[in-house]
């Protein structure tokens, strides 16, 4: 089948199933992955995960990361690092990560597979959390404040750890790994320091009322309104290229570059135009292709033994819910509120699947591990709203939604 035919079938199927799952109150991502599973070798074997399709999916990863960066600001990250939010974020990442490492070790996985397993289990999907909280009408509650802060920190921590893992040597001697960790850490510090320094410069200009938005406005006037998207892509590409020059994956620099694309750097109307264009290109075309491509690479033949995927899925659910409950308890939340927080943190998706896809394409994990991680992402995302509604059934959710949180004002939402 030609590339064009494969793409058209994937897009139509992914959009249809994604729309169906959206109507059912689930993330469209689930339907898009299932479209790939149905069309791929696992079921119908109508479309194969060919190199040209892989190239399109890599472009999709870039725009997905760009979209994620637009949803987060530097102030979100610094805000999440203050007070009890840092405690919740640390526990919400560290406990599942440790559970993943222990699971990998018990099943005799090698060091790299064990590390990626722990990393993917520990991630919380920011888009999934936002969608669930918004749907439930609790986006400005204490649960939302801590859940979104944890998701932001998880995304950043995952990319930093990914950068280090991709630089680990093939030989796994302690000295070689220690040396690589030191080098990779310094490179990441240099990259992060450059990003933070540029952010401080932009804030300094803002405080002196120097209009940053004048630069993109001048470029738009010269090249036309359609050039805004291209200007932004080029800006982010620079950071991605710098990341590659330092030996890290392209998406790490792209993510940090996207963090600079704040509404303060554009006129309000231009910013909304940018988000609309990106949503159309990514959500309408490339993101469904990426998630459908993940489904194409999913195969049931990888599950020679069902024990491993079942245990990994159960560990991922239990560890995330327990981490949310423990972190919420340490932050002073009630038992029910902490349990609800753990249920929200259980949602995975975009970043976890991006990390799993990169690890699989780079050869760090095999088909069995990759299929297990895709299955885990689907199951945990499907269960997230169900578990939360069990923690807050009917009237309890309405009561919590209407209750006032004097210690967490609406601005407590780390997405602003």
Provide a descriptive summary of the structure in words.
With 416 residues, this protein is mainly α. It has one domain (3-412): Up-down Bundle (Na+/H+ antiporter like fold). Helices cover 75% and strands 0% of the residues. The protein contains 18 helices and no strands. The protein is globular.
CATH architecture tag: Up-down Bundle
Compute the CA-based radius of gyration: 21 Å
Total domain units = 1
Q: Supply the number of helical segments.
A: 18
Mean pLDDT: 79
CATH topology: Na+/H+ antiporter like fold
Distance between the termini: 46 Å
- Main sheet: strands, sense, barrel: none
Give me the secondary-structure category: mainly alpha
The CATH class assignment is Mainly Alpha
pLDDT < 50 runs, ≥5 residues: 404-416
SSE layout and pairing:
Elements: H1 3-23, H2 28-39, H3 51-70, H4 74-80, H5 84-106, H6 111-122, H7 126-136, H8 142-165, H9 174-207, H10 214-223, H11 227-245, H12 250-259, H13 268-297, H14 307-330, H15 335-345, H16 350-361, H17 367-391, H18 395-402
List keywords for this structure.
416 residues, 0% strand, Na+/H+ antiporter like fold, mainly alpha
Compact description:
With 416 residues, the protein is mostly helical.
């Amino acid at each position: 089948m030609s590339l064009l035919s494969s793409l058209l079938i994937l897009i139509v199927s992914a959009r249809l199933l994604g729309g169906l799952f959206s109507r059912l109150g689930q993330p469209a991502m689930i339907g898009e992955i299932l479209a790939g599973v149905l069309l791929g070798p696992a079921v119908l074997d109508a479309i194969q995960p060919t190199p040209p399709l892989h190239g399109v999916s890599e472009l999709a990863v870039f725009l997905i990361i760009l979209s994620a960066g637009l949803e987060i600001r530097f102030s979100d990250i610094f805000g999440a690092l203050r007070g009890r939010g840092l405690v919740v974020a640390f526990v919400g990442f560290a406990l599942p990560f440790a559970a993943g490492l222990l699971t990998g070790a018990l099943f005799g996985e090698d060091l790299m597979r064990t590390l990626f397993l722990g990393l993917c289990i520990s991630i919380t999907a920011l888009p999934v959390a936002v969608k669930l909280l918004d749907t439930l009408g609790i986006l400005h509650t204490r649960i939302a404040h801590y859940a979104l802060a944890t998701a932001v920190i998880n995304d950043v921590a995952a990319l930093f750890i990914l950068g280090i893992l991709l630089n680990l040597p093939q030989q796994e001697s302690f000295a070689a790994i220690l040396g690589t960790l030191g080098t990779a850490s310094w490179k990441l510090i240099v990259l992060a320091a450059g990003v933070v320094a540029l952010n401080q410069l932009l804030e300094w200009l803002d405080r002196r009322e120097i209009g940053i938005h004048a630069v993109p406005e001048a470029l738009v006037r010269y090249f036309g309104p359609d050039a805004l998207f291209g200007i932004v892509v080029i800006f982010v590409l620079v950071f991605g290229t710098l990341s590659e020059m330092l030996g890290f994956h392209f998406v790490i620099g792209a993510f940090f570059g996207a963090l600079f694309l704040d509404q303060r750097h554009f006129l309000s109307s231009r910013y909304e135009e940018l988000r609309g264009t990106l949503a159309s290109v990514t959500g309408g075309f490339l993101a469904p292709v990426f998630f459908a491509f993940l489904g194409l690479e999913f195969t049931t033949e990888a599950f020679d033994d069902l024990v491993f995927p079942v245990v990994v899925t159960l560990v991922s659910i239990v560890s995330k819910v327990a981490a949310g409950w423990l972190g919420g308890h340490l932050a002073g939340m009630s038992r029910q509120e902490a349990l609800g927080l753990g249920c929200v943190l259980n949602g995975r998706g975009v970043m976890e699947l991006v990390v799993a896809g990169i690890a699989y394409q780079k050869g760090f994990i095999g088909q069995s591990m990759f299929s297990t991680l895709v299955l885990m992402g689907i199951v945990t995302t499907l269960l997230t709203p169900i578990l939360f509604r069990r923690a807050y059934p009917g009237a309890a959710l309405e009561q919590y939604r209407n209750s006032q949180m004097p210690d967490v004002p609406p601005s407590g939402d780390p997405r602003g």
